Model the fold of this input.
Amino acid sequence: MTGSELDVSGLPSYGFGHRSLMWWGTFGLIAIEGTLFALAIGAYLYLRSQSDTWPISAAPPLLLWGSINTLILVVSMWPNHMTKRAAEACDRVRARRWLLACLLFSLVFLVVRGLEFATLQTRWDSNAYGSIVWMLLGLHTVHLLTDTYDTAVLVVLLHTGPMEAQRFVDVSENALYWYFVVISWLPIYAVIYGVPRLQ
Amino acid sequence: MHALHDVFAPYGPQAGEVRALWLLTLVVCLIVFAAVLAALAIALWRAPRSGSDARSAPDLSGLRRPEPGTRRSVVAAVVASTLLLLVLIVASVFTDRALARLSTEGALRLEVTAHQWWWEVRYVEPQVADNFITANEIHVPTGRPVIVTLKADDVIHSFWVPSLAGKKDLIPGRTSTFHFRADHDGVYRGQCAEFCGFQHALMAFFVVADPPERYADWAAAQRHSASDALDEQQLRGRSVFLRSSCAMCHAIDGTSAQAVRGPNLTHVASRGTLAAGALANTPEDLKRWIADPQKIKPGTNMPASALSSEDMDALVGFLQALR
Amino acid sequence: MNAPDHAPRSRLKDGPGGGSREAAALDDTWRDPPGLLGWLAAVNHKSIARRFIVTTFAFFVAGGILALIMRLQLARPNAHIVGPDLYNQLFTMHGSTMMFLFAVPVMQAVAVYLVPLMLGTRSVAFPRLNAFAYWIFLFGGLMLYAAFAFNAGPDAGWFSYVPLAGPDYSPGKRVDFWAQMITFTELSALLEAIVIITTVFKLRAPGMTLNRIPLFVWAMMVTAFMVLFAMPSVMLASTMLIMDRLVGTHFYNPAEGGDVVLWQHLFWFFGHPEVYLIFLPGLGFLSAIIPTFAKRPIYGYTALVLALIATAFLAFGLWVHHMFAANLPELGKSFFTAASMLIAIPSAVQIFCWIATLGSGRLDFRTPLLFVLGFFFILVLGGMTGIMLASVPLDLQVHDTYFVVAHLHYVLIGGAVFPLFGAFYYWFPKFTGRLMSERLGRWNFWLFFIGFNAAFFPMHLLGFQGMPRRVYTYQAGLGWDGMNLIATIGAFVIALSVLLFIVNALRSLRRGVEAGDNPWGAGTLEWATASPPPPCNFYAIPVVHGREPLWVQPRVKSDGPEEGGQPAFTHVSGLAADARELLATTVLDARPDLRLNFPDPTIWPLVSAIAVTVLFIGSIFTPWAVVWGSIPIAIALTAWFWPRRPETLLHLSLERRP
Done:
């Protein structure tokens, strides 16, 4: 084959943000899960519009643990942000430390999430209100669990290796997913804890 | 029972409006379809053949110069299509409004509850004592609007009489209404139009439109229990009915059978068909049905019965007396 | 981070000047490992796509056989070939197979094969995820058919309305198998959508700006976006259904505050875009085939792209037209009438652009073009009946009748299956290196066209005569007999045509005329390499200068802004030949950006798919399966992700900081 060559051997072999494929994968996941949350919230509001009373045969969920968890989640964006910065600087030691901090936050809010379930004041099989509340909280909890597991795996990996720069991209994208998990919680919190208290 | 069931043979104003809209839509769509095919045919006819020579070079002139003639044709076609679509949208909205404006003054009121796989029909009269219940066959006076309240006992069904009106679903947990009017005497066939399980296919019903006097006679007869003059065989049949499993599901006014799980049989012999249109209302078919409903409508909720042939004859004789 | 001296190092580079050593190295690098284990561990996009296409086609045939049995039963009134229980399973399995196991997956499978070739790259963006998506799809389909074989096939319709499909009226596990099949197939489709979007945005050849990508790629990319927003709805709905059935929730139970119509909203919010998920790739096929057989670039590229995007947006605003007979507010319904009619406009734009292309080209009437012409007749007719159905009063008469059966088959078979068959004839030489027989192709087309119209046109009339859908039999004397018999005969003619297609494909595989790189004289990049392509697709990645790169050769004084007088770049060089390395380019302008490492073949996608299958099937029987089933999944996914030392060292030898 003859023709003029465009030599790319000098290009970098990794990049952060939307230059990386993982960013697009994460973006796709966010689109899917975001749609899922939006639809679940829509189903909640729809069932509420079809019912004379809301909540149905139950008191609204107690505010304590949900609000505490919201605070913990929002605060957790800070070690998350620091992890992302350390990863984008390819600083293994700092990234590892901040990631461990994120993991500790995860474990705390998983425990508090358990307490949230216990104080919802309804069961999934009581009635449609109970079902949709448990569904909303449950969907978000699945994301907390998977994000916790991801973070744990990365913590171990950053300690044991094998390491290459692409792994820092993975850590940075995990942080992006974490932002989604926190930010998607805010409207869900408003719906689960706020809407039953509306008149 | 011979009945009419043709969307394009309307016998009431609802179906009539739909037919008018249909004709307009059909004409417009045929024109568009023909035009598109004609455009395609002309394009294929006029374009030269290139043969199967892969090496003949493609014509890239379109990349260098704009193609104003082509552009005009495409834009014109799109504009024309859009305008025709707007015409159809407007026509549809107008038909909707015309249907909504049909008068319901002086309407007859019915309450239809759909079950797996039969239709419970309750006539709701101004005097509660005049209410009566029947099944699978609706009689209406011609020229008078009928308001039907629709409920479902188990799963979603759909009430559809093509010659009279469009359909409406009966949805568990919701009550809806719709109305229709039959303008000509006749028998109109309806069928459940929402998949509802095993015997969705054989869940028909009939709307019998009569002149007002004949309707009034029919309604008067329905309000009373069937004639009490039963001969010995028929009385024997009645006692078979009451002591067998029949009375656990079916009601017959004037007896102690008042269960509502199956169709009301007070005037079963006056109906044109049995088993939601699956059988003709003859003694032979009735006997076949009672002996083993599963053979005729597999999956139906009515169990087979093990009656001796004398008991069966008596039972059928009794039921056939319930006019 | 420097690799130690004894570590694997990459030394050979690709490029247009490369000789047989580089070519052999590229082949070695990108081909699948040998043996059965190698086949199971393959991640090459063409390998996965080939088995994916064959699997979806097998489901197509299975779904078709189910339909033939249904048509046999309906050929005469009061027939006793199948009873209601089996019939209800048959039509549920037919619809579910065609919609979930054939129509959407086949399009994604063809895209997985063609898109990297059309974009000028060597792989899809996430090759292991792509493999996983195939296995999940396969296992979901097998689960459904296994259930059917054990008389536990779902029987509440492909749309599974509650309360019929709920715990009270569908006892047993039949509907649970349906609901989990949804989970399998929608997971697969969602993952494939992510793969396609990322591939299209990041892995294009240099110079392939967004307004130079082939229209088929646009169609698949727009479809993939629709998948992301539509499929979560049915996932949510079916999960709620399974929970109602298994753990006592009350989402759809009106007695406890639930709502039956909620199912319909969630299902159709997915269900309407679903048909466009099937239709848009068909439109992509047309935009690929027509320019080749009219020997001119497509007329109206920009309008066609905008039409695809407009259709995708509008598709999300139509779903209530499936619910006109349910008791919803009347005013709202008018909005959906208007939207349902207006979506015809972008489709009309496309049709007129295609006719314009054909009319101003030089025509080659071979089999792919015949199937395209079949589309014009069948789809447009289906579109006309669609406009009729969009009107509320008209719909209330023919909703849930055979009129709708006719409509949906006209638009789906005309809009997707005819283009798909055209696509098979068109790209078969690229996949296999051999042309299909033209003579058999013509018989295939005409039998299909005639059989299709014989089978489905009478159904419009049956709907007007009052025949509802989903009925296992009908009584004599209703006037439905003759049309049903004709429809059955037509169905068998279709079956014959499909059989001819299979014969044609199998014969051509062994004895077809050799195709060469570009038997049709087409312009897009997949025709710039051998037929079938080598494992690495291109020995040197091309640089692109127009929408039809093979038709627009760069000249010495090229229009490339980067060159101004010097020869334009024609190919990329400098990617590793002895490691899986790909070029990532920028999103809009496709300027070279990064050299990315791609994973080697691995068994972990298959193992993960097995673990996920165990959880999904287990959770049909007990909710605790979700808990203990997560453990093998976590292990498999971790093993999938965990980097291997030799690979890492090889990557380190190629690593370069930004």
Remarks:
- The two ends of chain B are 17 Å apart (CA to CA).
